[in-house]
Amino acid sequence: MPQSHESLSRAIILMEKYKDIPMDFADATLVVLAEEADIDEVFTLDMRGFQAYRIHGRKSFKIGPR
Fold it and tell me: For the whole model, what pTM was predicted?
């Protein structure tokens, strides 16, 4: 869950940006958390989404399990 108004705003922006994937609220909050905590690894079965999502719009995720 977003910890601040700014985090919630960022999640909303991300859901709009990735609406064609689509990005749900849970994925958006994970991307926001990754941005805020400077994390680039995610454990997920949602390969389609997390291969497309970018941290700060630039950096791709390292996805597990492999």
Answer: 0.90
| CA–CA gap between residue 34 and residue 29 (Å, rounded) | 8
- Classify each residue of 29-66 as buried b or exposed e, where b means 16 or more C-beta atoms within 10 Å of its C-beta: bbbbbbbeeeeeebeeebeebbeebebeeeeebebeee
Domain span including residue 55: 5-64
Residue-wise pLDDT tens digits, 13-62: 999 999 999 999 999 999 999 999 999 999 999 899 999 999 999 999 99
Number of domains in the chain: 1
CA distance 66 to 63: 7
